[in-house]
């Protein structure tokens, strides 16, 4: 009996330690700060996707049950509705993303939820409100999230949940890149991009069209490229070329009546980046925001000397760290309004939380190209 009691005691301590670690991961407090009196408001127990070490997401993540946590005076307890699996989420789990939470950690970085309970000093939010973490915040792959009121931004509940869950990382990247680097005219200018079938690429096409800006879009040669071309044109793309179509001496001869672009976006690298550079007019700017091919960008000496091209980089995390919370939320409301009105569209696939491994396999590309995976709670 004594041995059994000791065993039970050890297991209890392990569970308590685990709860404290996860609470520390959420609120950044010391154990003493987290282990307050349990007479206050508590969250319901939560299910979460966690990882205790960095590595391949399909081997280091697991679904666990977490105990209730305290809802303090300035806290809001949110019942998550939906959260996506983004490439950056995968990179965080792998341990290769520049900014990542300490392990053990709960996955996920954006999403939408409904306010379940609020602390005694919370005035701006009420149970039933829809909220998103803004700026994004780690730990959205769990059924209940408790964080300070300042983390949450109330949104219009009329927006479809799949857009509310995914509006920050990809659409906001597209909007910021359109506005931060080159002053394009409201009409008559053009831009060129690779990775046009990505959600960022699709958003660039639609946001540019709303501004009267033409888009030249580059896609990879692969099965289904004809269908992808037609889908992009339906969103408002002016020109769509596969990489093989651009194996010509003078790519600008393919522009027709379109003006030479002053701005280019690169999320692939390698040859696809070189194709963007070939389209740019003298003094043009290429902005790199991703490197899906994992190949470097090679720029000819001629492009620098005789075309005076400018190469820039964009990282949404860096922009969000500049204290632009108010501006960020205003832009999110604008983008959500476009999505609600059908002026901003992209494909997602909703997957129940209990089927997370299936969604993760699709996000990892194990079963071919798939829509953005959005887990629902």
From TrEMBL:
Keywords: Fatty acid biosynthesis, Fatty acid metabolism, Lipid biosynthesis, Lipid metabolism, Mitochondrion, NADP, Oxidoreductase, Transit peptide. Its main location: mitochondrion. GO terms for molecular function: enoyl-[acyl-carrier-protein] reductase (NADPH) activity. It is found in: Mitochondrion. It comes from the Eukaryota. It catalyses: a 2,3-saturated acyl-[ACP] + NADP(+) = a (2E)-enoyl-[ACP] + NADPH + H(+). Its EC number is 1.3.1.104. It is an enzyme of class 1 (oxidoreductase). SMART domains: PKS_ER (SM00829). InterPro entries: ADH-like_C (IPR013149), ADH-like_N (IPR013154), ER (IPR020843), GroES-like_sf (IPR011032), Mito_Enoyl-ACP_Reductase (IPR051034), NAD(P)-bd_dom_sf (IPR036291). One of its GO terms (cellular component) is mitochondrion. Residues 55-375 form the Enoyl reductase (ER) domain. GO terms for biological process: fatty acid biosynthetic process. Transmembrane segments: none annotated. Belongs to the zinc-containing alcohol dehydrogenase family. Quinone oxidoreductase subfamily. PANTHER family: ENOYL-[ACYL-CARRIER-PROTEIN] REDUCTASE, MITOCHONDRIAL (PTHR43981:SF2). This is Enoyl-[acyl-carrier-protein] reductase, mitochondrial. It comes from Brassica campestris.
């Amino acid at each position: 009996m004594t041995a059994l009691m000791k065993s039970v005691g050890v297991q209890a301590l392990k569970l308590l330690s685990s709860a404290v670690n996860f609470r520390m991961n959420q609120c950044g407090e010391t154990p003493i700060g987290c282990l307050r009196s349990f007479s206050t408001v508590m969250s319901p127990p939560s299910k979460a996707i966690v990882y205790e070490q960095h590595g391949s997401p399909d081997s280091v993540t697991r679904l666990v049950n977490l105990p209730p946590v305290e809802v303090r005076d300035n806290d809001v307890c949110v019942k998550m509705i939906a959260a996506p699996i983004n490439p950056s989420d995968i990179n965080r789990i792998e341990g290769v993303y520049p900014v990542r939470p300490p392990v053990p950690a709960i996955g996920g970085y954006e999403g939408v939820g409904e306010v379940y309970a609020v602390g005694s000093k919370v005035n701006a939010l009420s149970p039933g409100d829809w909220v998103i973490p803004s700026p994004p915040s780690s730990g959205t792959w769990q059924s209940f999230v408790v964080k300070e009121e300042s983390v949450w931004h109330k949104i219009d509940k009329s927006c479809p949940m799949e857009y509310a869950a995914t509006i920050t990382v990809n659409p906001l990247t597209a909007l910021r890149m359109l506005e931060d680097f080159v002053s394009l005219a409201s009409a008559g200018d053009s831009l060129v991009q690779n990775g046009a079938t990505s959600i960022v690429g699709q958003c660039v096409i639609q946001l540019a069209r709303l501004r009267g800006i033409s888009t030249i879009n580059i896609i990879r040669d692969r099965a289904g490229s004809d269908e992808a071309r037609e889908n992009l044109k339906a969103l408002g793309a002016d020109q769509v070329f596969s990489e093989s179509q651009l194996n010509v001496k003078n790519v600008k001869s393919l522009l027709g009546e379109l003006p030479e672009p002053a701005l280019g976006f690169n999320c692939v690298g390698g040859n696809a980046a070189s194709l963007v550079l070939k389209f740019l007019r003298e003094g043009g700017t290429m902005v790199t925001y991703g490197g899906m091919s994992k190949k470097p960008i090679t720029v000819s000496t001629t492009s620098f000397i005789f075309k005076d091209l400018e190469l820039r980089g964009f990282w949404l995390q860096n922009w969000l760290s500049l204290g632009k919370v108010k501006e960020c939320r205003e832009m999110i409301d604008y983008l959500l309004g476009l999505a609600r009105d059908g002026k901003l569209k992209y494909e997602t696939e909703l997957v129940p939380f209990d089927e997370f491994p299936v969604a993760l396999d699709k996000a990892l590309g194990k079963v071919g190209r798939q829509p953005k995976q959005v887990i629902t709670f």
